[in-house]
Inverse folding.
């Protein structure tokens, strides 16, 4: 493997940021940019073959070792074993691949403690944050925003840890009952749930405003677990490699090195599919990355036209795939950085254009999206996802959650002969019982464990979309 010794990180808007442990704790760069590797590691076909026999924790050690070069390999192996071992994941293989009919294969990313793909990165982030904080004697106050699954995955990964507090913002009334219960029922002293009057983008803007205030950030040791944290992006690269390895296992040995697959990815904040972009750039044979949007289809518009036009809160719709109700995708900046030749000045200028005009016009680059990066996209609606859930259930006996249904629908529009289409699972359907009932016409009866969760007392603070109130709340409760 083309491992870069002492891999350094830089900001998409210019400037050095240090090594993996440094960017793990920092979140946004001081200039508002996002951390990216100065040099992206590469995987040759021989490297990929050497990875084939490894278990998921072992594979995670190898892939994450390319990015976390400042963590000794033995220590990193302990972190991945802690993240993916100990019965935390229901499936023995951690990420099972299951054919679901209509030429699609489901990549099972929702076997973790909160039944959502966010567990794949958050469990590693919980282990690695604690490791770095203990090594440095520091504390961290995590400030995050969630549209559904990020919050519960982060809180379950960080709950009860001595050196970390979590301040998680969520939009009032915009998550499913199951999602709210998973977060708000936690009673750990280091977990603070704040329901903001607004939409996810309002929550995300509050996080960005406080994280961009360097004095406040340093005074209160603020960090991030949203997908702006590169620790999450790197951990997600692992399952792209794993899925390619498992999909190509049955191929003839001579054909494996060129055995291409495509991935369909339900997308909101662009972090999940960005990890696929990095895996492809590193050398994993990925033909297409199929981005699935819901009615908040800002990203679909961008990849179809080259114009990025985020919507304001009033025009961000509340949909039946709520984890994708995002109109300003933070991670798109990392892709644009690559699109613009990894030029920090051009990237910073693009985001200044966004701040000044409300949009970025990259239509001159539009043809490169698919030809160079393999990125295509599409939009699904409420009626589409109902029909998709119903169709896969009737014909294949599988129940998809609404986000995965969005991915499956758009995947069907981008099938290519001889190239497997892998659909990344977002969550278990139990998290969206009302939508599943609407699609299938029969009530979803919760099991005893789910009912106990829904009935558990909840602890959450309702707050206006008020930056001053949030600052005061954090100042009073932050670890020091």
């Amino acid at each position: 493997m083309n491992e870069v010794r002492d891999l350094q990180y830089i900001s998409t808007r210019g400037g050095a940021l240090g090594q993996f442990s440094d960017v793990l704790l920092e979140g946004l760069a001081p200039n508002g940019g996002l951390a990216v590797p100065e040099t992206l590691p590469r995987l040759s076909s021989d490297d990929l073959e050497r990875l084939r026999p490894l278990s998921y924790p072992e594979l995670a050690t190898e892939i994450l070792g390319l990015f976390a070069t400042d963590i000794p390999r033995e220590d990193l192996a302990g972190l991945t074993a802690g993240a993916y071992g100990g019965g935390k994941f229901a499936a023995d293989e951690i990420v099972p691949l299951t054919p679901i009919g209509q030429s699609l294969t489901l990549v099972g990313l929702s076997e973790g403690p909160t039944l959502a793909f966010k567990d794949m990165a958050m469990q590693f982030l919980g282990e690695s944050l604690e490791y770095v904080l203990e090594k440095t004697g520091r504390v961290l106050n995590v400030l995050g925003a969630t549209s559904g699954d990020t919050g519960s995955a982060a809180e379950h990964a960080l709950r009860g840890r001595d050196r970390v507090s979590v301040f998680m913002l969520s939009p009032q009334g915009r998550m499913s009952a199951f999602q709210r219960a998973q977060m708000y029922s936690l009673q750990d002293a280091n977990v603070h749930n704040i329901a903001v009057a607004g939409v996810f983008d309002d929550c995300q803007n509050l996080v960005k405003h406080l994280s961009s205030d360097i004095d406040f950030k340093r005074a209160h040791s603020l960090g991030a677990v949203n997908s702006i944290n590169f620790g999450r992006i790197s951990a997600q690269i692992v399952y792209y490699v794993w899925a390619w390895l498992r999909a190509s296992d049955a191929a003839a040995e001579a054909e494996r090195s060129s055995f291409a697959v495509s991935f369909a990815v339900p997308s909101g904040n662009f972090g999940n599919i960005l990890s696929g972009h990095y895996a492809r750039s590193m050398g994993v044979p990925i033909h297409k990355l199929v981005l699935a949007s819901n009615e908040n289809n800002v990203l679909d518009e961008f990849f179809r036209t080259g114009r990025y036009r985020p919507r304001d809160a009033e025009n961000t719709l509340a949909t039946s795939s709520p984890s994708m109700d995002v109109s300003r995708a933070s991670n798109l900046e990392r892709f644009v950085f690559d699109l613009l030749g990894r030029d920090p000045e051009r990237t910073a200028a693009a985001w200044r254009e966004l701040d000044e005009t409300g949009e970025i016009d990259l239509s001159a680059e539009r043809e490169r999206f698919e030809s160079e990066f393999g990125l295509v996209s599409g939009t699904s609606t409420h009626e589409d996802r109902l029909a998709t859930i119903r169709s896969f259930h009737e014909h294949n006996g599988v129940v998809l959650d609404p986000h995965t249904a969005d991915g499956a629908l758009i995947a069907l529009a981008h099938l290519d002969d001889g190239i497997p289409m892998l659909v990344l699972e977002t969550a278990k359907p139990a998290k969206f019982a009302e939508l599943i009932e609407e699609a299938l016409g029969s009530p979803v009866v919760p099991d005893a464990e789910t009912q106990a969760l829904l009935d558990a007392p909840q602890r959450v603070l309702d707050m206006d979309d008020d930056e001053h109130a949030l600052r005061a709340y954090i100042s009073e409760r932050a670890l020091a």
DSSP finds 20 helices and 16 strands in the chain. The chain has a mean pLDDT of 95. Residues 118-136 form the longest helix (19 residues). The first strand starts at residue 9 and ends at 11.
